[in-house]
Amino acid sequence: MFGVTVRDHMMIAHSFRGEAFGPAQRLHGATYVIDATFRRSELDSDGVVVDIGRAAEELRALVSELDYRNLDDEPAFAGMNTTTEALARLLADRLAERAQAGALGQAGRDLDGIAVTLHESHVASASYERAL
After folding, report:
1. What span, in angstroms and rounded, lies between the C-alpha atoms of 113 and 132?
2. How far apart, in whole angstroms, are the C-alpha atoms of residue 63 and residue 35?
3. What is the rounded CA–CA span in Å between residue 33 and residue 122?
4. Of the four listed, 62, 73, 78, 95, which is most buried by Cβ atoms within 10 Å?
5. Among candidates 85, 58, 86, 82, which has minimal Cα distance to 70?
6. Phi, psi of 12 (to 5 degrees)
7. Would the pTM of this model clear 0.90, i.e. be above it?
8. Are 115 and 34 a contacting pair, CB within 8 Å?
9. What single-letter DSSP state applies at residue 22?
């Protein structure tokens, strides 16, 4: 399987519900480094997985919708703990929708999968991978 990864970052604020989260139940900030990996079993006729520039632009567009926001105030997240794992899935699903809609060109429509990893720090990250 071939893969192309693009990277971006975002800063958000949020809080969690549930005793398992301890002090993170209070409003706090998080800065994520985000890796989005696009996968294909075969390269396209140009010898690429997907256009890196287009992939980076689509990731930036998605991240800009969340960057510098308090996710507790966003209607899309009502009733949801916006854990790192949940945000990884959300970004992977939204990238998949954009790829299948043609935002990454034909190569994007022919992807086999997308994986998104959110790095919380230099020692912790969470990811979500999905097939297309």
Report:
1. 5
2. 11
3. 10
4. 95
5. 82
6. -135, 165
7. yes
8. no
9. G
pLDDT in tens, 2-35: 999 999 999 999 999 999 999 999 999 999 999 9
CB burial of residue 50 (10 Å; 0-12, 13-18, 19+): buried
Please give the full DSSP string across 45-96, using - where no structure is assigned: TTS-SS-HHHHHHHHHHHHHTTTTEEGGG-GGGTT----HHHHHHHHHHHHH
**75 strand-pairing partners:** none
Across the beta sheet with 125-131, the strand order is 69-70, 2-14, 28-40, 113-119, 125-131
Enter the tokens of residue 118: 């959110």
Q: What CA–CA distance (Å, rounded) separates 58 from 65? A: 11
Amino acid at 115: A
